[in-house]
Amino acid sequence: DGGITQSPKYLFRKEGQNVTLSCEQNLNHDAMYWYRQDPGQGLRLIYYSQIVNDFQKGDIAEGYSVSREKKESFPLTVTSAQKNPTAFYLCASSMWAQETQYFGPGTRLLVL
Amino acid sequence: AQSVTQLGSHVSVSEGALVLLRCNYSSSVPPYLFWYVQYPNQGLQLLLKYTSAATLVKGINGFEAEFKKSETSFHLTKPSAHMSDAAEYFCAVSPDDKIIFGKGTRLHILP
After folding, report:
1. Is residue A30 packed enough to be buried (19+ CB in 10 Å), middle (13-18) or exposed (0-12)?
2. Of A42, A88, A100, the CB nearest to B101
3. Is the backbone peptide bond immediately before B31 cis, with ω within 30 degrees of 0?
4. Region B61-90 average pLDDT
């Protein structure tokens, strides 16, 4: 059953803590993306990767980091430098840039 | 810079009525255009995609959209709304190596 999985569904962060959101796909897609969604603001691109071992900053990369060591995986770390991390985070993948993006179910990050 | 504008953050229609969600884009080159739907606390799901073949694009769940280059528009329509259509809808444009999303329109269906 092909698709994108994100875990956990809910994540709680304490002050000063780094947390990592998981994103895995078995669609054999080259490109992967991370978005942040806040009410009324649509989707904002955090980072994207078009190929293994390469990634680019999106519009709101400050306070976030990523890695792309395997084609199937694109984890996102929300660092302590991100002062307002509470949001819904969506991961997506596509065959290549400009193609249809397929989305995971999302992770909701909350601050304790 | 490329952008997508969705007119109306909230739209309400009666069940059985026409659904019209408006989207205008700015792009210096012929783009790929998309409509996605999002149900509460879920990811986005593709409704339909325009890739410069036919200007009228048919999607899932009875939705369709028409690409009008002269108006730089890609409005989404459905002839008869159903309660299950209540969701948030996103228009998106892909002029290069990224997709740019609009801010979304929440569709409410009135019984």
Report:
1. middle
2. A42
3. no
4. 95
